Please model this.
Amino acid sequence: DTIVATNGGVTYAQINPGTGLSQASIYTVPAGYTFYLNRAQAFTTNNGAQFCTYRVWSRTFVGGVSTPVVVLSAPFTQAYSSTRIVPRGYPEKTDIQWQLMQSNAAPGSIQLEGTLIKNDGSL
Model:
């Protein structure tokens, strides 16, 4: 059967029969580290006539205060690609979600590359 994670009527994740895993792309930067995103790509099997959006959402916790932010929202038709000259830094304890929204049901994927650096400067 389908496994669905909900809270207050909001669906946060779903695992379909035969898939065996969640298709969510969620990452929390460990305490004492900073994550630097170098490259992001999103793809869809849409024919180019459908609406697609690549979105990055984050929540940073500083001094007990939670700050949610939509970092980026980029529309595309079949492929999105971004390589950063200066990597985008996410501080420790930040939750990051990379999301793909489409106007019709179609397979899609997101690939990410980044570096996790200990805040004392070592890898």
In short: The chain has no helices and nine strands.
